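Private note to self, pasted from the team thread so I don't lose it. Backbone tokens:
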């Protein structure tokens, strides 16, 4: 039998670094599409639409990736629960990387007509399919190796990956926007970040080639024959609660990183460079605070951090939208930073929280499906709904703030209905509805 408590720090550091690098690469692939959708995909692939309709159509293809993510979590979750967490990491990275490179090769509407947006849609679906498997594999491999008292900390490393991937994707976009003319950027410049995904995928595969399988998976004696059926039969309420709870995180993150980029450049007349810089700076702060928030989760509990972050989100959405509407870089940055700090208070501990909620034999499927369904509820619709609401409002899009606040309140209720899972020592009381995790 394997004992996770005997895993030495150097092994955990190598494992956490590999997981971080992998999630950074896959989220780079995912985010670079979101930025392109906000900036250029509308006129290039939907030129017969009005500017607003073109943006909405581009965001619709963006949303397809979120719809595919739960399907990816089912497919790769089955592999992860039946064959191991490690194979998931390789297969998901290959799929996401290949489909991202292919997006950069799709001719525009002017070259091949309606086939262009159709191809875009298919490749975005494949991107989402791969990313749906990535999170479960990377997080579980780290969480199941980690010592229980520091599980939130070690599991937070894959959660830093999205911030790194976002900064990398938008940093490339920022450089290209600065050195190319608008015509050059629209003609070929936007494709360069997609082509770069191929090199990153090769690097990620090399990093993951030597990772050891999860000891908790190796200890499972009775593997679920059909993990999804087991989850649907015994854990459906838990899946729905976790999806509803996580919806607010996706909604806030993509409101800041995708919708606000389009809103600032199209409605407020702020340059691409300024908007990208403000958003990237806020994401850097968020990424830097992730380990600290995870440590607090190990100290005070996962549910406590999630409830705190969700409450802060509900209180901050109206101030954030008001600060965005000023068009002033410093004020926009402050608005974005406040939103993303509230976001990371929840998502820094989610990588430990979700696996602890599920038994090991169906953990890869259950945790990943709940996580990615939250993406559909919060991430797929937010750029589309926010764009439509902002179009009907005045200079300050209060409707967007009300929409985000409503999602935060829904998620708050869901978090309140979930149990605490933080492992407690023998000296700590366990009588207040707190249960220990299965280690």
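Design output:
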């Amino acid at each position: 039998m394997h004992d996770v408590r005997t895993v030495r720090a150097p092994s955990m550091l190598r494992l956490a670094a590999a997981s971080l690098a992998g999630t950074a690469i896959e989220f780079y692939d995912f985010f670079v599409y979101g930025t392109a959708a906000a900036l250029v995909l509308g006129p290039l692939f939907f030129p017969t639409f009005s500017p607003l309709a073109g943006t909405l159509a581009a965001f619709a293809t963006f949303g397809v990736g979120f719809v595919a993510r739960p399907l990816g979590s089912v497919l790769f979750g089955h592999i992860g629960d039946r064959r191991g967490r490690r194979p998931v990491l390789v297969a998901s990275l290959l799929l996401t990387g290949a489909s991202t490179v292919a997006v950069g090769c799709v001719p525009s509407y002017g070259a091949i007509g309606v086939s262009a947006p159709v191809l875009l849609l298919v490749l975005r679906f494949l991107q989402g399919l791969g990313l749906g498997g990535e999170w479960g594999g990377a997080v579980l491999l780290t969480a199941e190796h980690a010592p229980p008292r520091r599980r939130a900390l070690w599991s937070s490393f894959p959660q830093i990956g999205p911030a790194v991937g976002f900064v990398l994707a938008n940093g490339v976009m920022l450089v290209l926007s600065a050195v190319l003319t608008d015509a050059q950027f629209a003609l070929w410049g936007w494709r360069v970040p997609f082509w770069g995904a191929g090199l990153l995928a090769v690097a990620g595969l090399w990093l993951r080639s030597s990772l050891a399988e999860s000891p908790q998976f190796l200890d499972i004696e009775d593997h679920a024959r059909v993990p999804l059926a087991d989850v649907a039969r015994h854990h459906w309420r838990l899946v729905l609660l976790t999806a509803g709870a996580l919806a607010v995180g996706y909604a806030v993150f993509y409101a800041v990183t995708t919708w606000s980029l389009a809103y600032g450049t199209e409605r407020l007349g702020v340059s691409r460079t300024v908007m990208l810089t403000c958003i990237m700076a806020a994401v850097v702060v968020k990424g830097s605070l992730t380990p600290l928030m995870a440590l607090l989760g190990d100290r005070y509990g996962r549910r406590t951090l999630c409830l705190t972050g969700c409450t802060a989100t509900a209180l901050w959405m109206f101030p954030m939208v008001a600060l965005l509407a000023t068009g002033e870089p410093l004020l926009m940055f402050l608005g974005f930073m406040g939103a993303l700090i509230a976001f990371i208070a929840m998502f820094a501990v989610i990588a430990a929280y979700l696996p602890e909620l599920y038994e090991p034999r169906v953990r890869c499927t259950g945790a990943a499906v709940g996580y990615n369904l939250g993406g559909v509820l919060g991430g797929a619709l937010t750029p589309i709904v926010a764009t439509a609401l902002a179009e009907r409002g005045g200079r300050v899009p209060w409707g967007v703030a009300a929409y985000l606040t409503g999602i935060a309140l829904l998620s708050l209720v869901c978090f309140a209905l979930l149990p605490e899972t933080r492992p407690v020592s023998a000296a700590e009381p366990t009588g207040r509805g707190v249960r220990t995790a299965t280690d």
